[in-house]
Structure formats: structure tokens, C-alpha cells
Design a protein that fits this description.
The complex is a heterodimer of chains A (300) and B (468). Chain A has six helices and six strands, in the order αααββββββααα. A two-stranded antiparallel sheet of chain A has the order 1-2. A two-stranded antiparallel sheet of chain A has the order 3-4. In chain A, strands 5-6 form a two-stranded antiparallel sheet. Helices cover 59% and strands 8% of the residues of chain B. Chain B contains nine helices and eight strands. The radius of gyration of chain B is 39 Å and the shape is rod-shaped. The chains are: A mainly alpha (300), B alpha+beta (468). Chains A and B meet through helix 1, helix 2 and strand 5 of A and helix 2, helix 3, helix 7, helix 8 and helix 9 of B.
């Protein structure tokens, strides 16, 4: 092939341009720390990164939700635990009052003590988590239980449930996995509170037989509270397992994402150094080709 | 009979011919880097010989040469290469233009940044999920509104910038149409000159170079092809329709609509074009960008309908207000998607609850958040996020596809150009060698003149002086 000066120049320019472009791409990779800047650099990589990022954002949202669920359940557990203690104390007082050895006055003071326990139990049943009543079903802004004094004798003689009946708040732990959040307040507390009122009134009547018969409902109600506590505990374990799993998955996702979109620095920098050397050589060769002598320089 | 004076003429022919040859060499050297220049050569040929006439046959045993003549100025031309070169050049420019326009689109969407639409969608869904955990929290509601509004704005903004880029191409199209028309009339004018010069028996080398360079430019813009007629004129056509025939040009015109189309002024036919910059412009403007816009419209319509259909069934924070749309149901395209007036500025009206009078119920919010995982796009095949991710990937593929094609076609065009240059280009060493050759011949001819001069001097001044 016949070579002309024009060809030499054009080739020199072309190769300088190509090598500068390569240098630019590598510089961009190293400086930005990202494997690609635009979808066109790596379309399938970008799609994979998008879906990984979405999954990561979603799992963060689930983790937030789980943290909130967990603390709600801890509050529930604490309240139920208190309720168990109050119920046990009430049963003990009722048993004490049911024996033949206690007198009239003592029974009356036992009744007063149960009345205080009753009010404490109502407070426990009206527990809140971040300002929301946890035993009220969906009616989280309504205190679930209130004591009423029907005959206006200064004594509360009934308890009313104002919360939602059979309402279950559900929380999603991960796509497709959801769990009931709340413990039904009516199921758990109504019987207990009513049994406490009955026990108090029985103690007031000073009739051991009646007092004895008030103990069984209290025990049954305690059983109910215990059951609820077990249910809540089981749910909370499930929530914590889900949290563990999600946290592990997040670490996995982050490392996947990094592998997909972050520049492999060792590789990129050594390529960059290599490319620099190549570019310098190309420049030198190009300079020689462009400024090569022709026969004209030797004419005399 | 030989003639001494004839020898002077022979030497003179050599002087003149080599002057022309040297001039041609000068012309080559001068144009060594002129684009489209093809090297020329003075073709030397012996002068017409003659037999010395006499009454009784030959006086000398053969014809006598009369020196040297320049037969013609030859051009190193490769017409068949030109045709292939122009075709591949048009293809390369087509992809190059597509790459340029689509790179603009890619840069203006900047989907890989934190500001990408997929990230905004994720924010939107997690906003709903957050609200479902704590539906009575007013700041969560306000935050969700903020996210939804930013999502709607992002969709509208994308639609606006895409349509703007689309319209901006009009300017380039009009510019190119003007250029085609002006180049075409220049070619027609050169055609006339070429035919005239040729008819007079001459070679219009430089005019041909100039014209062919203009045809190359037309191929770049519009993928025009040319065929050279016997008389030297070029017939240029675009997409099968004649643009230049001899001295006649057929003008192109662009419609003055938002998205201009090009038609032939003479017969009103639309321009069909499949190579050159214009083809790339049209492909980007009329196929690839509309594909993304349609994608945005689909996405907006689905987002509005799926969110609204759940939202209208839910209950607002007061527990009784229901049947409110979240997005404005009358604005379902990417151009105008926005929050409904019931919701905009009224975070309490977000229907997070599935049942009435249940402030703690976040089930509807959760259901809306879970649209994220539902395949509501493409007839139940993709989620909204997947759909848009695919659109972004498709744009990326279009661009990298166009880039690869540009590179490939450019490489072929380059190597054809190199082959052409190898034949038609100017090599300075060659020219220098020729220059020396012609210079020496010229010097020899001048020496011949002085020798003959001396001989004549001898005859005129030295002869017949005996006894003087």
C-alpha cells in the first residue's frame, strides 16, 4: 500500500483520540468510584443495580416497620406482665378473704385493696405505645376501658370496653409475611376486670362462700392474660427472627450492590497506569510520524 | 533533411513540458492536505514524429522525433470506491447522530443519580409503608404528600425535557434541509462547468474534486448517492428521488409543524431516508424518544389508577371521609400527573384506614405500599419499578447499540478512505523525487539549447570566413 503523509497524520490523530478516550473512561471510573455513569455504559448492569437498590430501600422500610412492631410488642409484654402480677395479687387477697379465720374488718380492707388493684389494672389495660392505646384495636386514640359508677355511690361497679371489637392490626414483616400486631383488649382484660369487681363486692358481703366462688373467675381471667402474653411472646420471637433475617439480607444486598456498581479500584488503577503509559507512547509515535522528514528536507 | 533549428524546437518542447510537470508537482504539494484532493500527474508523451519529406522517397531511414508534449493532466481517481465510501459514510453518520441525540436524553434524565425516577418510586412506596405503621402520625402523612408530589413532579419534568429535546431537533432538521438545498445548487453549477470543460476536450480535475467533496457532504447529511454520467455530470439522489440532474436541482422543504417532516417541493412527496444524519435524527425523534414518552404515560396512568382505586375505598384520618382520589383522576398522562385537590395540602385526607372510624388502621396504606410488588404493568407481567427500569435499560441499549454501530461503520469508512488515500493521496517523497527528475530534464533541455546555440554560432559566424 502506498502511504501518504496525510495517512500518517490521520492515523496518528485517530490513535491519539482512541487512547485518550480510553484514558478518560478509566479516569472517570477511578475518580467517581462507580463502574458506570450512564445506562448506556452497561444497560443490564444498571437494571440490576436499580432492582438491588429498590430491594434495599424496601428492606430498610421493613426494618423500620419491624423496629416499631418490636417496641410495640415489648410494651404489650410489659403491660401483660403487670396485669399478671395484679391478677395474682388479687387472687391471693381473695383467697385470704375466703378463709374462715379473717374477720369482718379485715375483709373490708382487703376489698379496698382489690379496688386499688382494679384501678391499677384498668390503667394497665389502657397502656399506650408512642401515644397510642395498644389494647384498643384500630381505635388507637380511644382508651379501651373505663370504670363506671352506675348507682353513684362513689364506687365503680362496672367496666366498659370502648375499643374496637375483634380488630386486628397487621404488620408486614417481609413481602407476603404478615403478623397480627395487637392483643385483643376485650378478650384479655374484660373478664379480669369484671372478676376483680365481683371479688371486691364479695369481700364486702363478708360471705366466705361467695368470696370462694369469686376466686375461680379470677383464676380463669388470669389464665386468659397468660395466654395473651404467650401469644405476644411467640409473635415477638417471629418478629425478631424476621429482623435477623432482613439484617443479614441487607448486608448481602449491600455487598452485591457494591460488587455491581463500585469500581474495582485495584484493577481500574492498574489499567489506568497502563493506559497512561500507552497514551504517552502513542503521543511520542504520533509526534514522530507527523513531523517525519520527507525528501524535500534533503533537497539542496 | 535534418534541421538544426528543429533541434531548438525539440529542446523548447522539453522546457515547456517539464515546466508543466513541475507546476503539477507544485500543485500536488500545495494540496497535500486538501480534503478530497486527488493527486494529478502531467502525462508526458513524445511529440508527433515526422518523416523528412523529399521528392524521391526517404532521405533519412525513419521518422524523426519532435520532442515531448503533455498529453493531459491525469487524475488518480477511484470512482467505484467513492460509491462504497459514501454509502458507509451515510450509515456511520446515521448512528452517530442517533448517539448524539440519545446521549442528550440520557444526560437529561440522569436516571442513575440519586434523583432517578426509580429512587423516587421507592420513596413513594416506603412513604406509604411508613404511614401504615403509624397512621395517626400527621408528620408521616405530610412526608408522604411531599414524596408523592416529588414523584409526580419528576414524571412531569421528564415528560417536559423529553418533548423539549424532541422539538429541539427541528432546528437541526431545518438547518440540514437548508444545507442540502444549497449544496445541491452548488453541485448543479459545478456540473455545468464540468460538462463545458469536458466538451472542450479538457480534464476539469479540480472542479471534479470540489464537486465530489460536496457529494460526500450530502451523503453525510442524507445518505445521498451519485452516479457520474458519460459527459462528466453527476446525478445525485436521496432515497431514490432525484436531487440533482445536470443543471437542475429539486429542492427540499420542511413542514412548519412542531415536529417537522421533510418533503420534495416539486411533487409534495415525503422524503424517504434511511442513511445519513437526518435518518439518525428521525429515528431518535420519532421512535426512540416517543417510546420513552409512551412508557412514562403508561406508568403515570397505571400509577394513578391503581393508587386511586385503593385510595377511594379507604378512610381519611377523621374516620368518616371516604371516596377521595389520591391523584387527580382527570390527569392520567405523564404531562400532567398531579395530586388531587382533595389531597394536595390536606395530609389528613390521606386514606390510610381500610375501615371507618379506625384511626389506628393502616391497612389501606399498606395495601397501597404493596402495589410496589404487584405486576400491574404490561398486562400483569411487570411491577411499576421493573417496567421503568426496563425502559431505562432499553434506552441504554439503544445508545450503546448506536455507539457500536457508529464505531463499526466509521472503521469501515476509515479503511475505505485509507485505500482511497493510498491511491489518490499526495506522497511528498514521490513529489520530491519527481521534482528532481523534472528539474534535471529541464536543466538538460536548457543545456541542449545552448549547445545548439553554439552550433548555430559556428555556422553563422565561423563558417565562410576563410581568407578574411
Amino acid at each position: 500500500m502506498r502511504i501518504t503523509q496525510q495517512l500518517l497524520t490521520e492515523n496518528a490523530i485517530k490513535y491519539m483520540d482512541e487512547n485518550l478516550k480510553r484514558l478518560y473512561k478509566l479516569q472517570e471510573k477511578v475518580a467517581s468510584g462507580k463502574e458506570f455513569q450512564n445506562p448506556s455504559d452497561n444497560p443490564s448492569g444498571v437494571a440490576a443495580v436499580f432492582s438491588l437498590r429498590s430491594t434495599l430501600t424496601t428492606s430498610t422500610a421493613y426494618l423500620d416497620s419491624i423496629a416499631n412492631t418490636d417496641s410495640w410488642m415489648t410494651t404489650t409484654d410489659f403491660s401483660l406482665n403487670q396485669a399478671v402480677q395484679l391478677a395474682t395479687r388479687a387472687i391471693n387477697l381473695a383467697r385470704q378473704g375466703g378463709t374462715d379465720t379473717v374477720g369482718d374488718e379485715q375483709r373490708s380492707s382487703l376489698a379496698t385493696e382489690i379496688d386499688i388493684i382494679l384501678q391499677q389494672a384498668v390503667n394497665v389495660a389502657n397502656s399506650t405505645h408512642e401515644g397510642k392505646y395498644i389494647f384498643s384495636g384500630f381505635k388507637t386514640q380511644t382508651p379501651p376501658f373505663s370504670l363506671v359508677d352506675n348507682n353513684s355511690d362513689g364506687q365503680f361497679d362496672d367496666v366498659i370496653y370502648n375499643g374496637g371489637v375483634n380488630e386486628t392490626i397487621t404488620r408486614t414483616l417481609s413481602p407476603g409475611v404478615s403478623i397480627p400486631l395487637n392483643i385483643d383488649g376485650k378478650d384479655t382484660f374484660e373478664a379480669l376486670l369484671k372478676a376483680m369487681i365481683a371479688a371486691r363486692d364479695a369481700l364486702r358481703t363478708n360471705d366466705p362462700a361467695q368470696i370462694q366462688s369469686a376466686i375461680a373467675p379470677l383464676e380463669n381471667a388470669l389464665q386468659k392474660v397468660n395466654e395473651s402474653m404467650t401469644t405476644n411472646g411467640a409473635r415477638q420471637r417471629q418478629v425478631r427472627l424476621a429482623k435477623d433475617r432482613l439484617e443479614k439480607a441487607q448486608i448481602e444486598l449491600k455487598s452485591l450492590l457494591s460488587a455491581k456498581e463500585d469500581t474495582n479500584m485495584t484493577e481500574a488503577i492498574s489499567y489506568l497506569q497502563h493506559q497512561q503509559t500507552v497514551y504517552q507512547t502513542v503521543l511520542e509515535v504520533g509526534q514522530r510520524a507527523i513531523s517525519a522528514m520527507s525528501l524535500f528536507d534533503l533537497l539542496s | 533533411m535534418s534541421n538544426l533549428l528543429q533541434g531548438l524546437n525539440t529542446a523548447l518542447s522539453s522546457l515547456l513540458s517539464h515546466q508543466i510537470a513541475i507546476q503539477t508537482t507544485e500543485h500536488n504539494v500545495a494540496n497535500a492536505s486538501t480534503p478530497g484532493y486527488r493527486r494529478q500527474e502531467a502525462v508526458l508523451t513524445p511529440g508527433i514524429p515526422y518523416a523528412v519529406p523529399s521528392m524521391r522517397g526517404q532521405v533519412v531511414p525513419g521518422q524523426i522525433g519532435t520532442g515531448v508534449l503533455v498529453d493531459r493532466i491525469r487524475q488518480y481517481n477511484m470512482e467505484f470506491f467513492d460509491d462504497r465510501y459514501r454509502k458507509i459514510l451515510g450509515e456511520s453518520k446515521n448512528w452517530d447522530m442517533q448517539t448524539n441525540v440519545l446521549k442528550q436524553v440520557e444526560a437529561s434524565l440522569s436516571e442513575t443519580s440519586e434523583d432517578g425516577l426509580v429512587a423516587k418510586l421507592d420513596d413513594f412506596w416506603t412513604g406509604w409503608q411508613g404511614l401504615s405503621d403509624d397512621p395517626t402520625n400527621m408528620s408521616l402523612r405530610a412526608d408522604l404528600l411531599e414524596r408523592a408530589d416529588s414523584l409526580a413532579t419528576a414524571i412531569r419534568w421528564r415528560y417536559d425535557s423529553l418533548t423539549k429535546i424532541q422539538k429541539d431537533q427541528n432546528l437541526t432538521i431545518l438547518e440540514r434541509v437548508d444545507e442540502i438545498n444549497s449544496v445541491a445548487s452548488q453541485i448543479a453549477r459545478l456540473n455545468v462547468e464540468i460538462v463545458t470543460v469536458k466538451a472542450a476536450g479538457n480534464q476539469p480535475n479540480d472542479i471534479i474534486d470540489q464537486r465530489d467533496q460536496l457529494i460526500n457532504r450530502l451523503s453525510e447529511i442524507s445518505g445521498a448517492s451519485a452516479s457520474i454520467q458519460e459527459n462528466g455530470e453527476a446525478v445525485v439522489s436521496i432515497g431514490g428521488h432525484a436531487l440533482v440532474i445536470g443543471a437542475t436541482t429539486f429542492k427540499l422543504s420542511a413542514t412548519s409543524s412542531n415536529l417537522s417532516n421533510i418533503y420534495w417541493e416539486a411533487d409534495g412527496q415525503a422524503l424517504t431516508i434511511n442513511r445519513g444524519e437526518l435518518a439518525g435524527l428521525f429515528a431518535a425523534r420519532d421512535q426512540i424518544i416517543p417510546n420513552i414518552i409512551n412508557g412514562l404515560n403508561d406508568l403515570a396512568a397505571n400509577l394513578v389508577s391503581t393508587v386511586n382505586s385503593l385510595h377511594t375505598q379507604g378512610y381519611a384520618a377523621d374516620g368518616t371521609t371516604t371516596n377521595l382520589n389520591f391523584f387527580d383522576p382527570g390527569a392520567t398522562s405523564a404531562a400532567d400527573i398531579r395530586l388531587s385537590s382533595d389531597i394536595d395540602g390536606h395530609p389528613e385526607n390521606i386514606a390510610a384506614a381500610e375501615t371507618a372510624n379506625s384511626p389506628g388502621d393502616g391497612n389501606m396504606a399498606l395495601k397501597i405500599a404493596l402495589i410496589r410488588d404487584q405486576a400491574v404493568m404490561s398486562a400483569g407481567k411487570e411491577t411499576i419499578n421493573q417496567y421503568y427500569t426496563r425502559k431505562v435499560a432499553e434506552l441504554g441499549i439503544s445508545i450503546s447499540h448506536a455507539e457500536t454501530y457508529t464505531k463499526d461503520r466509521q472503521a469501515v469508512a476509515d479503511s475505505l478512505d485509507q485505500l482511497r488515500e493510498a491511491v489518490s493521496g499526495v506522497n511528498l517523497d514521490e513529489e520530491a523525487a519527481n521534482l528532481i527528475r523534472y528539474q534535471r530534464a529541464f536543466q538538460a533541455a536548457t543545456r541542449m539549447v545552448s549547445v545548439i546555440d553554439e552550433m548555430l554560432d559556428k555556422i553563422i559566424n565561423g563558417m565562410g570566413v576563410a581568407g578574411r
